[in-house]
């Protein structure tokens, strides 16, 4: 009986691998005025480990590998840049000052997945850590779960089926934590054109809001006074493993309109 179960598990994994390695374009722009989420840059502790994770589970292909410097990866129109940190500190290793609990900044990126259950099973089978298992997001009306990459960065996946039989990964989501909530809300609505959507579930311990622009969702979380900036705790000679920069484009995108948001987060806008 155990041999039969093992055989079934092997067949399931083979099927999952077949799906995962037949990727479709991440997204295609149909309107020149459509905002696109085109790049994310992460500071990592170990290039090989992180590159292997994104290649295995998200099907990113390596474009350029420079040992001890960076790895450039791509899933069609979306680029991922992994930068080697210096004596990299993980968020789990942070020693917060007394009374501090949270960090301001970019804390999460997310993707629409058409093979949602298969990806979940794939991550689970290889014992990958989930920060939050599958649940229904009442505000977005989507099933979702949150995984952790090798450095503890939060990567959220949303169940968005389509007619493709091949695996698709579409960048669609990012999270900003800010202790300056009102001005951050104003900045993203005025500079990037995001609009608030109705919050139907406000059970979050801190005030949370969702904004949308085209097919991109911004989760904005208002942190209390117990939050702090990385400059308050990071040693000068070390880097923090984190989502360092996000890039968005409209149209042919030849010029940079700005490179920082009101909190100093690296939000690059190309137009």
UniProtKB/TrEMBL annotation:
<feature type="domain" description="VOC">
    <location>
        <begin position="36"/>
        <end position="160"/>
    </location>
</feature>
<dbReference type="InterPro" id="IPR029068">
    <property type="entry name" value="Glyas_Bleomycin-R_OHBP_Dase"/>
</dbReference>
<protein>
    <submittedName>
        <fullName>VOC family protein</fullName>
    </submittedName>
</protein>
<dbReference type="Pfam" id="PF00903">
    <property type="entry name" value="Glyoxalase"/>
</dbReference>
<dbReference type="InterPro" id="IPR004360">
    <property type="entry name" value="Glyas_Fos-R_dOase_dom"/>
</dbReference>
<keyword id="KW-0732">Signal</keyword>
<dbReference type="InterPro" id="IPR037523">
    <property type="entry name" value="VOC_core"/>
</dbReference>
<feature type="signal peptide">
    <location>
        <begin position="1"/>
        <end position="28"/>
    </location>
</feature>
């Amino acid at each position: 009986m155990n041999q039969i179960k093992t055989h079934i598990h092997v067949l399931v994994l083979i099927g999952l691998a077949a799906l995962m390695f037949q990727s479709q374009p991440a997204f295609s722009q149909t309107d020149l005025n459509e905002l696109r989420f085109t790049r994310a840059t992460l500071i990592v502790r170990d290039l090989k480990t992180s590159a292997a994770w994104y290649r295995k589970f998200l099907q990113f292909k390596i474009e350029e590998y420079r040992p001890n410097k960076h790895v450039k990866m791509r899933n069609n129109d979306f680029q991922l840049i992994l930068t080697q940190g210096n004596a990299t500190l993980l968020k789990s290793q942070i020693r917060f000052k007394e009374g501090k609990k949270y960090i301001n900044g970019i804390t999460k990126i997310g993707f629409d997945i058409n093979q949602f259950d298969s990806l979940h099973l794939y991550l689970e089978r290889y014992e990958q850590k989930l920060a939050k298992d599958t649940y229904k997001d009442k505000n977005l009306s989507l099933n979702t779960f949150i995984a952790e990459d090798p450095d503890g960065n939060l990567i959220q996946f949303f169940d968005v089926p389509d007619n493709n039989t091949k695996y698709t990964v579409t960048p669609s989501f990012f999270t900003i934590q800010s202790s300056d909530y009102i001005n951050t809300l104003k900045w993203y609505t005025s500079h990037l054109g995001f609009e608030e959507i109705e919050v139907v579930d406000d059970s979050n311990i801190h005030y949370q809001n969702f904004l949308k622009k085209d097919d991109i969702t911004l989760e904005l979380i208002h942190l209390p006074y117990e939050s702090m900036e990385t400059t308050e705790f990071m040693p000068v000679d070390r880097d923090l493993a984190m989502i360092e920069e996000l890039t968005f484009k409209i149209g042919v995108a030849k010029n940079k309109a700005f490179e920082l948001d009101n909190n100093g987060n690296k939000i690059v806008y190309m137009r």
